[in-house]
Amino acid sequence: MAEALGAGFRQSVWMVADELGFAIDSQLRTTHEMAVATAPVDSPIGPIGPGKVAAQRFVGRAWWTASRS
Fold first, then answer.
1. Is residue 32 a contact partner of residue 2, using CB atoms and an 8 Å limit?
2. Secondary structure of 17-40 in the HEC alphabet?
3. What distance in Å separates the CA atoms of residue 54 and residue 51, rounded to the nearest whole number?
4. d(CA 2, CA 52)
C-alpha cells in the first residue's frame, strides 16, 4: 500500500523540492501505519467495530542530498 501511494506522490514531491531549490535523493521512503479500534467508534460512514482499522497514516520522506548549483 505504501509503495502504491508513494508512487502517486513522487513527481509532486520532486517538483516542489525543485521549486524550493532542494536537491533530494531520488529514492522516497514511505511508511504505512494502521491503528485498530479498541472500542466502537462512530464515523461519518458508520460505526467502526473493535478490532477493525480505524486510522491510517501514510508518510513519504525525501532526503536532501546537496544544494543545487
1. yes
2. HHHHCEEECCCCEEEEEEEECCCC
3. 8
4. 19
Query: Domain locations in the chain?
Result: 2-67
Query: What pTM value is reported for the model?
Result: 0.60
- Judge whether 60 and 50 are in contact, CB under 8 Å: no
Report whether pLDDT(3) > 60. yes
Please write the tens of the pLDDT for every residue from 6-65. Answer: 677 778 888 888 899 888 888 888 888 999 999 999 999 999 999 999 999 988 788 887
Q: Is 68 helix (H, G, I), strand (E, B) or coil?
A: coil
- Spacing of C-alpha 55 from chain mean position: 13
Q: What is the DSSP letter of 1?
A: -
Query: What is the distance, to the nearest Å, from the Cα of residue 21 to the centroid of all Cα atoms in its chain?
Result: 22
